[in-house]
Design a protein that fits this description.
There is one protein chain. The protein is an alpha+beta fold and 171 residues long. It folds into two domains: 95 residues, no CATH class; 33 residues. It is built from five helices and seven strands. The strands form three sheets. A three-stranded antiparallel beta sheet has the order 6-5-7, with helices on one face. A two-stranded antiparallel ribbon has the order 1-2. Helix 1 crosses helix 3, helix 2 crosses helix 3 and helix 2 crosses helix 4. The protein is extended and about 65 Å long.
């Protein structure tokens, strides 16, 4: 793609956006997760993880002149092979391994899902204390939780101070 610049100059761009272009651009998105700056991550985290899963799980492909990433020695070479894929090919591979990537992200992560009664918005929390607070709130209902006490914790109906001691009979 040719672009006209001021003063009669021009610039030429490649026409095809490659997976490596996207991954490298996302590396510029740096997130500081600790106030002192000691914990940082970049926006290419998911592309790196997905690339690792593809390299480990891919058995073969029919892409001419491109070795299967898992057969290359070293993670850098594997990612380099994947970086040279066009965005459409990368997207197809990414979609194919998405369930495995999600499974990896969920391993050893206890997730509690709650629905906000008024808005219907779903909230996923991993902190057990926060899950307890949401379960105790009348504004949220647990819809999924590894803790059976939190699932269906809210009874439907009304209560009053008169019913705290249980039912009474007036025979």
């Amino acid at each position: 793609m040719d672009v006209a610049l001021p003063d009669g100059q021009s610039a030429t761009f490649r026409d095809v956006l490659m997976r490596g272009d996207i991954r490298e651009a996302k590396r510029g998105m740096v997130f500081i997760t600790n106030a002192d700056g000691s914990r940082r991550t970049d926006g290419a985290l998911m592309e790196d993880l997905t690339g690792r899963v593809i390299a480990r799980m891919l058995v073969s492909w029919t892409l001419p002149g491109k070795p299967v990433p898992g057969q290359a020695q070293g993670e850098h070479l594997q990612q380099q092979i994947l970086d040279n894929l066009d965005d459409g090919t990368w997207s197809a591979l990414e979609a194919a391994v998405a369930p495995w990537v999600q499974r990896i992200l969920q391993v050893n992560r206890v997730t509690h899902s709650f629905i906000h009664t008024a808005s219907g918005e779903v909230f996923d929390v991993t902190d057990p204390d926060q899950a307890q607070r949401l379960a105790a709130s009348p504004d949220f209902t647990a819809i999924e939780s590894p803790d059976p006490k939190l699932r269906g914790a809210k009874a439907i109906g009304t209560s009053s101070s008169a019913s705290e001691d249980g039912p009474t009979s007036t025979e």
